Amino acid sequence: MSLTYVSQQISLYSGIVYLIFGVTGNTINIYVFSSVSAYRRTPTTFYFLSESIFKNIYLLTNLVPRIITFSYGYDFTNVSSLWCKFRQAILMMSGATTLSLTTLSIIDQYLVTSSNPSVRRMSRIQVSHRILLIIVIICSLHAVSFFVYFDISSITKTCISLNSTLSNYMPIYFIVIACIIPISIMSLFGYLTYRNIRQTIALVEQHADRQLIKMTFLQVMLAFIDTAPLGSLYIYNMITSGMIKDQDRLMKEYFAYVIISTEITLYFASSFYVFLFSSSRFRRNVKERLFGKRQTNVILPNTQTK
After folding, report:
1. Is the pTM for the entire model greater than 0.85?
2. Transmembrane segments in this chain: where (predicted)?
3. Could you give the C-alpha distances from 7 to 1, 46, 87, 107, in angstroms and in order?
4. Is 270 within 8 Å of 18 (Cβ atoms)?
5. How many Å apart are CA 24 and CA 290, to the nearest integer?
6. Phi and psi dihedrals of 150, rounded to 5?
7. ∠ CA 107-229-197, rounded to 5°
8. What is the C-alpha to C-alpha distance for residues 39 and 271, in angstroms, rounded to an integer?
9. Which CATH class, in words, describes the domain spanning 3-289?
10. H or E, element range at 15
11. How far apart are CA 28 and CA 48, in angstroms?
12. What's the CA gap between 70 and 64, in Å, rounded?
């Protein structure tokens, strides 16, 4: 059994699992966060709602073609020039937007837990709406170059960047913009939020939600764990780009790429289960919305006879 075959089977079956559970979980997130009034008024959960939408876009655009390729041997990206361009642009836009929203959620928790009232007032749902619009516009404009310069190579017959500048920019983007900058911001504001919590006697007085803080921290930890290896992979590729590699080494590098890609996809597929694990209120809201199990106070009649 070759390493290439093992890599293809991992890509296929992990793709099927992530597609089923990821899209289902993100869809439940969208339904719960949009239907519970308390969640709709909170900037962090608004970021979670928007993030779930873009995660579904990423999963569907990334995994459906992958499953078809490894199941039937037909890769649309190597056949259709338009799909090659469109898929790459959508992946870049949705991936960057999702990571930005995760970063914004921990920033918002820092604002909410601050002891300074003027800082807390910066956490407003109206501001979050404007920030989301700005992020989507920036990420969409950034993805335009990928739509323009990605195409099917006449030599390799695969979907790649045909622009040397873009090809040189992509490792820098994944190392610096997609990994170092968001991880640094998440780490900084995660520390500042933790410091706020330690210094605050009563979070309730500041309208801070401990369960929401826990949901955010776990989401940020997942993003950190899943995106850091991607930066390491691109650093390795840059260091070894001038080396002559034999077939055995190329197969091992491809296997490592598949494992890291599988780990990254976990970030896009697991937020619902992270929220379910970390918040009893979220679990209760899921039960109420999906199964109609609403907890009510029932007054039993007094049947005692005198």
Report:
1. yes
2. 12-32, 53-74, 86-111, 131-150, 170-194, 215-235, 255-277
3. 11, 37, 22, 37
4. no
5. 12
6. -85, 135
7. 25
8. 16
9. mainly alpha
10. helix 3-35
11. 12
12. 10
